[in-house]
Amino acid sequence: MKANDGNGAIAPWALLLETDCLAGLLDDDEDVQRTAVHDLGQVVTHQNSIYGATAPAARFVIAILGHSRTMPLGVYFHEERRRPMRAALLEWLGDLVDDATHDEEDPGEPDDVATVRALLPLIYEAARSYLVDANLLIREAAVHAAAMTPTAPELALHIPKLLPLVRGTDHPWADGYSVDPPF
Predict the structure, then answer these.
(1) Which end of the chain, C or N, has fewer beta carbons within 10 A?
(2) Can you list the residues of the chain whose pLDDT is less than 50?
């Protein structure tokens, strides 16, 4: 695999490796962690795009959600409030599902998008673990991530369980343009 495609563009997987994005999520230094979360949004899903590196990064995020190092408070993505990194990672997973299942735009190469869509059951299960978390911000982010997954037919059966949770959160569905959940 080449990092440069010959036109000066760097492949997303190479950027992921160059930025230490995934390893930085579990770093002892909270500044490194905040940078890693930022890189996750900028490198792995830049402008709501899905790349070859997106699904492996999502699998890594799913695997580390329960790690104690995902609990430091910080300002992540475009938020102004401090919240646990775990909440930011759950939000990223929910946004990723939205990107992969949104029919109006082509978010990436069909194989890359299909690989992310295949992760929907894993994302649902990962989020489900935090639907009753003691931390409100983690719980709301988990509801967001879980509520995005019923676009997969095999997960639609969870809608009745998710609906009261969705109605009980202050999450701005559809980028703040609607108070309705995605299903």
Answers:
(1) N
(2) 1-10, 15, 173-179
